[in-house]
Amino acid sequence: MSETFFEILRPGINTTIQDYGRKYLYHIGITVSGAMDLRNHKFANALVSNNTQEATIEFAYQGPLLKLKNGKINFAITGDVFFKILRKNSKVEEGKCYKNYVLEEEEQIDIISTKNSAYGYLAIGGGLKLKSFWDSYSINTKANIGPNNGKKLSINEKIQIKNTNKVQASDRKIDYKNESNNYIRVIKGTNFDYFSAESQSKFFKEEYSITNLTDRMGMRLKGSTLENIKSTNIKSEGLIKGVIQVPADGNPIILLNDHGTIGGYPKIAVVISADLDKVSQLTPNTKIKFKEVSLEDAENLFKSYLSETNKYLNEIN
User: Fold this and answer.
1) For position 257, which CATH number holds?
2) Are residue 145 and residue 39 in the same domain, yes or no?
3) How far apart are the C-alpha atoms of 262 and 219, rounded to whole Å?
4) pTM for the predicted model, two decimal places
């Protein structure tokens, strides 16, 4: 029997394979990577009855055009995404996010664009046939780690799909709306006292604009510059997703999934875990403001985030 696969007719701007990411490798300079918006990654998998850790196809802004060869599949797309399904009878069906679909052989998925967000996710029932690297299928294009030689997907390549006998019509769906609040909650960073009292106040009171210099590695901001009164460089220290560094030019950088594992810029704050998905979805020219919360509040907000995520997952199941 011939293997089922997608033929990539258009790769999109930044299309990669992602899962939960790879853990416990910071000591050798390998960051976690993984899905930028982990909640939407989980929802996509749940809608096609996959384990939520199964790899998905992550795309940014313009997505891929994919033709299915040799078989049929279930699929779902999550995020704020405009896509169409090109059926064999020449019928064009406008797709809806957070809904399970069946795709037949020779039919196509045309993921035209995200709308008011950066990333979307495509999950295939049964999963993708991939080679793991350090217990993860995530692609890190900065380090060329992961399937497809660690590179984003390209035209005329194939995406192999695991054979499954469970493909059938399903009405699995959820009513979910992506959060649009541009207040980003943070806790103070380890170098907060490196900045003048005026800059500390500005950081929480004034708006910052997301620049075009934004990718899976980090998000550069533009706004009131922050004055460092001690040192613009420190001994390199370990970094995590969500850390906000401030280089010598005074403009903050929010570190994202493919960040370096160490760095020598002072850290003014850290985005709380409950807001990381939301931050990842913000697009250039968006205005944001930072709001300080306590460590205890950050922990409780993350518990609420997990509880809400599980509520939707239970609705799907």
Assistant:
1) 2.40.100.10
2) yes
3) 17
4) 0.95
